[in-house]
Amino acid sequence: MESITPSNLFRERSDSRAVGSGRGEWKYRAFSYLVLTVCALTMGVPFIWMLSTSFKPEKEILRRNFFPNQATVDNYSEVVTETDLPLWYKNSFIVAVFSTISVAFFDSLAGYVFAKYQFPGKRPIFIIFLTSLMVPTEMLIIPWFIMSSNPPIGGTWVDTYWGIAFPGVITASGIFLMRQFMQGVPDELLDAGRIDGVSEFGLYWRVAVPLSLPAIGALCIFNFLGNWNAFIWPLIATSKSEMFTLPVGIQLFSSEAQTPWNLIMTGASLSVVPLLIVVIIFQRYIIEGIALTGLKG
Amino acid sequence: MIDNPDKSNRANADKGFRWTLARRKVVWAYIFLAIPIIFFAYIRIYPALFAFQMSLHDYNPLAAEQPYVGLENYEKLLDELNKRKSPTKAAFQNTANYLLLGVPIQLCLALMISLMLNEIRFMSTFYRIMFFLPFVTSTIAIAWVFRMLYQPRFGLINVMLQLVSLPQQPFLNSPKQALPSVLSLVIWQGMGFAVIIFLAGLKQIPRTYYEAAEVDGASRWHTFRFITLPLLNPTIVFLLVLQTISFLRMFAPVLAMTEQGRGGPLDATTTVVLRVYREAFTSFNMGYASSLTVVLFVFILIITIIQLRVTARRIN
User: Fold this and answer.
1) Are the beta carbons of A197 and B5 separated by less than 8 Å?
2) What is the ipTM of this complex?
3) Is residue A233 a contact partner of residue A216, using CB atoms and an 8 Å limit?
4) Which CATH superfamily is domain B86-315 in?
5) What residues of B are in contact with residue A247 (Cβ under 8 Å)?
6) How many domains does chain A have?
7) For the segment A165-184, what is each residue's pLDDT rounded down to a tens digit?
């Protein structure tokens, strides 16, 4: 399945593959655009509805207008001042950044070792790492919960950042991806470094990492998104509102009798924004990474 | 550390140098892998075995003892499945329904969209981003948006139905419509991923095949049927497996879209993982919940083995 590397996902198409130009081609084109536009609208409307509702005053929620008659930012100020949302934001951010840095370092290091070192036990260790991909998170959450309440280090991991983040600080899929990529690092370069007296860690840090930055970048983006949206484990690993991550907070928003739709939509809008920022910031980086992985694929 | 072999040593036998280097590399490989090995052993492998073990105990974290009960949890599971009606049975039935409806619908729609998207140039990046957007959005956030869209009276869908003079629908409040309503969200959200993977797969098909077909005057349908579809087979198998597993693990949308996250009305939307969650963390029947996760694991294992078999056969 080499075609399914994250960087491939964003690859731009280099040629248009028109089949049978001539014979009713424009009709097919027009039909394509029609279908695609309808589908794209279906994809977009819920987001627009979410944003539009977040600007509606409370009394307009039950009315049938799509856009607010009297747009207001009251929902935003209420959510920011009256709820723990700023804290959830902070928590999500800390957890996502921490796991992403850890994943970037350990996954690329392990991927580098599997790609460039020969050592006894390499195959079994790699297979065990990969096998862990087959075990669904859902099977592990109950043992993790027991382990978190009674960990080897520290009093309890429940309601701590480490407790939320620990399952994702190293990922098997990331190691696999990095191994694929690190195989492309030329052995001659590493051997030349060795002759010049560069330490083994120096070879990883100053040769392998710079050559794999695009892949590491793609890994970071996917990992950040995954952690930002992670739900089932943060739901279990936290009990205090101050420690919730954004998805957990939004889910437990409406525990009161009435569903505060305008506030939920505001929270939802706020949780989508950073994600767009991440995608926009790393856009160029992603495309560069793709160009490189593309050479292999 | 012999990081810096000094120059006089270089004159030494080449063989000796290589031996040292090889051994040094083994040592470093293990130093670099130490933390990942500990991590996988302690955070992935040990808990998986622990889950098996828990499923053989009457495991209640609040109780003083966790007595060994053998296969009792699995017997209880079979009993529940044999009852005419039970939450566990509903969970398995619904999960099967989500999967058997969701995977084909999602893949067919995604294939159609990616075929169209593959042939256009104008605005193609825009469409791509639109399809990918839901996939990178938090499921919980967007499930709440859909829950509001489905509301009676003020929900957007019922408002639109009224605009075109169609009868109002209960959606999430009706035992019949609730499952398709939740399923729509899941299909909607996962679509972009399937589209992107299909597009990557379509890109791998050599262009010359299409040119040859064009020269032979093959129709669009024939080109699709005899070139695109067979060559896209690996991508289809890959997506089939991935989406099946993700439907088996369905949880967050049901929790967010149903009243108090119970998977109602009348267990109409509940899933296996939702049962696991409720049994383990509201009833604290962690032994029984673990036996459910073991069954889930076995399903995923079977699917993965089938995938490996299919993929291996193609290589031969």
Assistant:
1) yes
2) 0.86
3) no
4) MetI-like (1.10.3720.10)
5) 138-141, 252
6) 2
7) 999 999 998 898 899 889 99
